[in-house]
Amino acid sequence: MNLEDLKAEAARRAVQFVKSGMRVGLGTGSTARYAILEIARKIGAGELENITGVATSVESEKLARENGIAVEDLGAQPLDIAIDGADEIAPNLDLIKGAGAALLREKLVELQAREFIVVADHTKMVKHLGEKVSLPVEIVRFGFESTIQRLANFGEPVLRRKNGEIVITDNSNYIADLRFSTDDAPHLARELKELAGVVETGFFIGMATRAVVAFESEVKEFTR
After folding, report:
1. In angstroms, rounded to a whole number, what is the distance separating the alpha carbons of residues 28 and 16?
2. Is domain 3-125+205-223 in CATH 3.30.70.330, yes or no?
3. Which of 17, 32, 82, 179 could form a disulfide with 113 if both were Cys (CB 3.0 to 4.6 A apart)?
4. Which phi and psi angles does 39 have, rounded to 5°?
5. Contact between 126 and 118 (Cβ < 8 Å)
6. C-alpha dist (Å) from residue 222 to 6, 84, 93, 187
7. Cα 208 from Cα 200, distance rounded (Å)
8. Which residues are catalytic?
9. Distance in angstroms (rounded) separating the CA atoms of residues 57 and 109
10. pTM value?
11. pLDDT band at 116; cut points 50, 70, 90
12. What per-residue confidence (pLDDT) applies to 29?
């Protein structure tokens, strides 16, 4: 199977944990997209009912509504489950997320979930965070150059652009991708959150309860 097939398989397996009547956090990105479509398929087939989705991005909300999933805004009420992808998954299920520039809303939604399931293909598994990807850091637009200067004390930050244009998040902020070298992700996460101008980081530490990962020959589940 190619990577897209593996992503879809992992998503289908994860959706098996969704039961009728649940409030579900809907992730963002290519793998989470398959989960949203699988939930919609099950609703259409009568396999699930009374599902309420809470989306982590404008994109995911649009996809869910277009496919018949009822969506509401995030409130104080807990979610039963959240399903989302990741850019890196460490052995202890700590994550780096944010390649889709939705990390702030993803974190807010997934902190409300009783269970947070990560779905991915095997290429996202790493020995330590930062092994393959940079850390997305959401920063405010005002004074962003000075914020990036402060981020440079912790690694090599690059303001994210797409087709030459600065990427703007759903929250009207910018993203700086920080290449770092420390193995102590929890400590770095705390230090970065203390920087003026930093809104949120792509470190998801101690949040995922389960990972569903598709390998070439099988789908494996890992729990914290």
Report:
1. 19
2. no
3. 82
4. -60, -45
5. no
6. 16, 15, 8, 24
7. 17
8. 106
9. 10
10. 0.96
11. very high
12. 95
Residue boundaries of the structural domains of the chain: 3-125+205-223, 135-200
CB distance 56 to 107 below 8 Å: no
The structure tokens 């889709």 sit at 100
Nearest alpha carbon to residue 86 among 205, 216, 183, 217: 205
User: Token pair 């702030």 is at which residue?
Assistant: 104
Strand ranges of the sheet holding 203-204, from the earlier edge strand across to the other edge = 88-89, 95-96, 203-204
On the 0-12 / 13-18 / 19+ scale of CB atoms within 10 A, 169 is: buried
3-state secondary structure (DSSP) of residue 41: helix
135-200 under CATH 3.30.70.260, yes or no: yes
The beta strands (E) that lie in the chain are given as 23-26, 52-55, 70-71, 81-84, 88-89, 95-96, 116-121, 135-139, 156-159, 161-162, 165-166, 174-179, 198-201, 203-204, 210-214, 219-223
